[in-house]
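Sequence only, no structure available. Ideas?
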Amino acid sequence: MRSLGLVRSSAALVAAAIIGGAVAVGAVALLGGLEGATTMVTQTVASPRMASETTPRGSMSINEIYENAAPGVVQITSTSGGQTSTAADPFSTPLPQMPSTSLGSGFVVDKAGHIVTNYHVVSGADQIRVGFSNRDTVEAKVVGADPSTDLAVLLVETGSEALTPLALGDSDAVRVGDQVVAIGNPFGLSRTATAGIVSALQRYIQAPNSYTIDHVIQTDAPINKGNSGGPLLNARGEVIGVNTQIETGDTATGNVGIGFAVPSNTVKDVVAQILRTGHVDRAYLGIVGQSITPDLVDTFKLPVEQGVLVQSVASDSAADKAGLEGGDTEVVVAGETYVLGGDVIVAFDGEKISSIEKLRDAIAALEPGDKAKLQLYRDDKKLSVTVTLGRQPPSPQG
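Reply:
I predicted one. Tokens follow.
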């Protein structure tokens, strides 16, 4: 497979965000650490009530999860190239080109033969083949893809007995510390199970088209090259995420205990749109913005304590047509760079906006062509502006 998804460095993504529905280039939540301390340990015996609180009702063992889910996990082989390349001399014979093959994972979502995987696993492929647990390998076609969430839906034609759909769980119900199991094909080793916990929630990772994927699940379940597109399952065997990227810490290309999965609720929305229309449309405002921080408020005496600074406005976007204004003065506060002097958005369609993430979520709930009312401050003056949302372009650069 292609490198397990756009392997991401530990540096934070750019704080500015081009707003575009569920995804945009945005500020990343920094990874935290633990300080050492001397601790006195006393031995206690857990009461039955305590034990039941740490074990979710209906939970299964890792073996049970694997036995139930592994038949629904597939290996995806994507092949591209293999024809001829253009020689440097246009009058010479074209040079032969070896085909490029990559491996990834995916999982069955229905008896009709639809399979979910990562966009980057199948992007640019001339041929896609899917391997099942019964060793059958069939050709697949792409029904639709969404680079903004790094998701794709494939379709295979095979007997229903080969299809074991996996249930999509509720990723909003996931909590830090929940036990999880990843099943995939790391380095081509088919249907490998690894286990861990949910390490953090609400992470932000960069999608293949440079937007940001929101509400990402972080896990320490080992995932490596080949796991991309495979399921992350909870203790009930439900898919709560699609394994997409790893953090290597700039020291290696393998797992160091930090992996990221696109949440299942995002998967549900994307798959539903792809099956309905073959593509995904997102509403788009067209600004680069940043969340206001307490340090910024204290230093520059801003008129509000919460909101989103408009750094710049994309030409001919919904924000541009509505007359929103970007900033013109760059400042550094607590090590972060901000652009002041532009509008400050404080509410969107009646909902208070406390951060860039809240604004992205509010836009994501609407569709291209929908109208929305913005409350904003321009200097010390409060204004109300109505925008007609556009359609998110293929990339932040348009």
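Residues 283-391 form a domain with the Pdz3 Domain fold (CATH 2.30.42.10).
Hope that gets you unstuck.
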